[in-house]
Amino acid sequence: MTDSLKHKKIYDRLTKPYFILSVLIVLFVVSRISMYVVFMRATGDHSVRGFLVSMNKWDTGWYQWYVTYIGKDLEILHATPTYNGQAWWAFFPLFPSIVAFFWKIFGNNDQNNILLIGEAVNTVFFLVAEYFGFKYMMVTRKSLFAAYSYVAFMSLGLYSFYFSILYTEALFLMLLTLCFYFLKTKRYIAMGIAGAFLSATRNAGIMFVFVILVDLIEEYIRQEAKFDKKAPVKSLFSNLKDFVVTNLKKPELIFGTCLVPLGFFSFMALLSKITGDGLAFLHVQRAWGKNSNGLLRNLKYAFYNEFPPDFLSIATLLIIILIVITCINQKRFYETTFSVIILLASASSSFYSVPRYAIGCFTVVVAFSDEFSKFKPLTRAFLGVIIAAMEIILIKYWILVDPNLV
Amino acid sequence: MKAKNVILYILSGILFISYLAVMAISLDTSRATDAYRLYYVDKKVKYYLSQKDLEKKFCADRKFVFTSDYNPLNLGNGWGDPEPDATWILGKSGDVFVYVTHPERDYRIKLEISQVMSYENDLYINDVLIGKVEPDEQGNVEYQVPAGILTEGVNKITIRTDSEVYPLNYINPDATDNRRLNIYVRSLILSSAPEWSQI
């Protein structure tokens, strides 16, 4: 057998669905066992149930309550804000509705089972997300190493635990990955359906329409745009007109794009009926005391007023640098668009959630995996070890921190 | 054009128009309760209060004591945090919101002032000037509310100075307080006769 034929056979095997899924599951199991070991050593508690329950903190309390009140014949629709104005409509309804559905079937009406069912559901979402993330990497990067790097980072990398606990991270990642995958494979109606669910999961989901727009612009410039240097303004308008007409002639694209905001606007319509305010999900943020200083002002505050900066500020700066470098190197502006949107949205009030949202926004880790695959082996090994070690430290901090004391 | 494509275009059009309709309805918050709009939309009150509380507890004929014991949720913008004796207005003005069910009645408004800095303040109801805030020896300020000023629902009472209010440590270099202290208000009541005489 010739070398090229041998390589092709290995390549074919490595890209078979059963092989990819096997790798995903192995990586996932290894990472979750690592978390369990960290939990055991940090707390002295050896129970698996204890581990599964105690990983859920902060907003999981809200989601648990949310699921309970959806499960109780949609009592949530009559629920009023807490004493300090916090209300359930700050959280988009798709994820808790899915968990409530399974809780009604398998949960035995026991509230304690909500966390476990949520984790099981999120595990499925996460594995599906990783699988389609792999396929997306193969479609766009055509690099097996980059694709497997991506799934390794998602399972073993920073903030991976968020994709297992009762948060929306796993569902959002799965739907977002599907959106990107279907966009690049030009299955626009499937993209729209995934997008509709995406925008019902988090308000950031509606921003995917900008990804579609930038991708279409990029494609048009690459394939069809004609620029006349002697008449630049005229050719710009001519190209603009041609761009609009060309894309309007694609009914599946138009319909798929129109579908994306459906989840978002459906929630708005519901809130308008319940509260009289369709933007209630936005206005309720006041009760959490969130300011909107903006990224630049927060960066100045962290690196100038409050120097030296804390871990989260440094992480935010590194993410910004990563986005800039990968944009310059890879020139996938539609991916950069989404990374920037998520960064600006998450960093507008504080840097607290920036790393978590960056990891969960798909495009940042995809771009990093692409760069990572081009490094020298020693650099890759060094970075991989650093990232895995940092995740262990993060898990330990997550397990030990008491939200009531923060 | 294929039938499928026509259907897709029609559905796209329906979706787009629906989104515009939902957006238009969402921007109109007139169907939300007064308390909801005060806190979430207009951001006129410091603390969240329910519509039920607004109508039953922060209404006319109730004495609002602006101390930390009494949890005055109807304080609007411009106030500091309630303190053991009273609450400061920080800056040029402070609002208080009161729910009125019977605006046709005769009302009197009474303030208890604990301390005044050197600023001259005026009292307004729904942006209509009622009079000057000049406490008597007991620290009280009282006025008859002219007819037609109060409306059914939420009414705004404002104490305001036209002067620039400076930080205390700017006026008095020995002071450590850097807040812009204007006036220290202990209580307020908007009362309809004849209950007035019993408050």
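The mean pLDDT of chain A is 91.
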